[in-house]
Amino acid sequence: MSAATHPAPTDTSALPPYVLALKERIAYLPEQHIQRVLRAFQVGAAAHEGQTRKSGEPYITHPIAVAGILAEFGMDAETIIAAILHDTLEDTALSRAELSGEFGEPVAELVDGVTKLDKMRFSSRQEADAESFRKMLLAMARDLRVILIKLADRLHNMRTLGAKESDSRRRIARETLEIYAPIAQRLGMNKFKAELQDLGFRALYPDRYRVISERIRAALGNRREAMGRIEGALSTRLIEERIPVRVVGRIKSPWSIYSKMRSEHKSFAQLMDVYGFRVVTDSAMSCYMALGVAHALYKPVDRRFKDFIAIPKANGYQSLHTVLLGPFGAPIEVQIRTEEMDSVAERGVAAHWAYKTDSGPANSAQARAREWLSALADSQANTPEAAEFIENVKIDLFPDETYLFTPRGDILSLPRSATALDFAYAVHTDVGDHAVAARVDKKLLPLRTRLESGQLVEIITAPSAVPNPAWLEFVVTGKARTAIRQYLKHLQHEDAVDFGHRMLDRALDALGTNLDAIQPAVLEKFLHKSKFKRLEELLSDIALGNRMPDQVASQLVSSRGTAARGAPIAHVAENIRITGAERGVLSFANCCHPLPGDEIIGYLSPGKGIVVHRVECPNVVELRKSPERCVAIEWGHDVQGDYRAELRIEVINRPGVLATVAAAIAAADSNIENVEYVERDMAAATLLFTIEVKNRKHLADVIRRVRRTGVVSGAYRYPL
After folding, report:
1. What is the pLDDT of residues 522-555, one digit of tens each?
2. Which residue from 339, 437, 464, 498 has the least number of CB within 10 angstroms?
3. Which of 541, 531, 529, 547 is CA-nearest to residue 497?
4. Are 239 and 277 in contact (CB under 8 A)?
5. Angle of helix 420-427 relative to helix 478-510, nearest 10 degrees?
6. How far apart are CA 81 and CA 101, in angstroms?
7. Which residues are tagged catalytic?
8. pLDDT digits over 383-410, tens only?
9. Is the full-model pTM beyond 0.85?
10. For residues 368 and 315, is the Cβ–Cβ distance under 8 A?
11. How far apart are CA 360 and CA 354, in angstroms?
12. Which residues fall within 8 angstroms of residue 370, CB to CB, at 6 or more apart?
């Protein structure tokens, strides 16, 4: 049924005052849309009948207040209606079909996008929150209005947080500061962000908030005259140059001051000893002219100018930023922008809202937001676990960006501290997967190099290059992390299937048979009983240590299908050979650091796969108490890669000795991962080096070179 079949109320005197206030705020909508909004109030009020907020007010006052916040942004009727009904699917008997039939499918989609997943079962509260958040982000990718409703919902909840219990207040405030305020910033909605941050700060740290707020008020009282003089001088000079402007003083918020005091280790006095002004004019050309006037009036501070008009921030923000030396010796921070830029800076994706399709025009913040959300949708498709997805999103919510140039002159925005490898994945996943080095401002540098704004970056690739687990230790973007993990999971599965096959074959060989001799029907029956769909799943499970190959082999052989072939003849099977390339299922024990050339043994650790130990490792005695988990392995002929080893070196304690030893290790083509002093006195010291070598022979060469330095009294592998 459509909304037209339900006559909307014409007697406004019957409406509560808070609904009349909303009706006034949506006066910009056509009359028929206003009637649909009032109808939504009727449906919502009936659905929430008898429900109250913690404060005792009727529950419907909350969704009406959320709709009122969105009306301030001039949102369309569908968004206002969805805001009024945003809790109905979760908290009332109203169904999605009824919503869709009454108000249309777009409204039902919006309400469904905001609805939490309380009815699903999760192992923890954190997982439930993560899954709910993931669903909301995916709904955002389909329709940006979902996040606007969610942010308005969170803003009103924060404004009325006082009625909640202390623990709930702190949890909601922390979530607001960690997730919702950064999302508002990422979408360019600075007005939302600022209020969410201050409300979150007040709820989480009430005493700190009170102290800082009082000090801000006192400081502003003392500075009013100086602010007026600077504002007057700026306005007068700009008007003389016939540049249409309005100049307004900017006041730092309590949260802004508190977070800068912590991150920049500055005192309150240092942060407040800055005058902030915003200059708003009519065009980009006028912005640059106003910049020239400001620089002529007060001397600019070196290296403190930023042009976000030519290179907008990732959230669409545009403005010129400069710092001037004021008449009182204090710095003056000035932002210069157009009215359009000012609106986008304050409201972001909600500025000048007229809902557009993906193909239609949009402001810069809307366009940037869609790019970001599209990237998030790709990320979640490759990230099965909700908590991992949220971790990637948090990484992408960095407030500071680094702006970099591609060889073609395109601009890429990455979080601060991004590496050349993050840049490679930002260009394309294939570029990241095959990256080997980077050319930064024409200098050849490693992939782990941290990048700085303005650099020209070119990625060098090789078809044979593949992602390395060590990459996860230095990338910072969610896209890079997701792509690397996805590749490694695929690699692990392939390695696990291959290794599991070799382990099961060896176990069957010990019983005088092999996998090919097992009848298909017997194998199918075993797989079905073990709840595996394919043989590959069983083989992978064996390699990851979740099933014992000897037990699987025994069960297959003892079945009737193999009995007809005669009793198996047991004999000793060959060791499984490893090349070191099976890193997906193999790991090397930190207790003994096995190297190619060492006599080794494998231990099946559940979920981890095979952990390789040296046979003389002290822990092997304990491992052999579980013989079914011990795997007979040996090094193959074509061993590859670098392996970690530890060197214990006793030296004469004198200046330069560390550098001498390090140079000797480097001369032997070994990379030093870490070095630490184990013991140290006036005469001697013991150093523990963690290095990378190819094999035992390479390690012996390193030790020989170290002993020849003349500063070493002893050098040996550790543990022995």
Report:
1. 888 888 888 888 888 888 888 877 788 888 888 8
2. 464
3. 541
4. no
5. 90
6. 14
7. 90-91
8. 666 666 666 666 566 446 677 888 887 7
9. no
10. yes
11. 10
12. 144, 358, 362
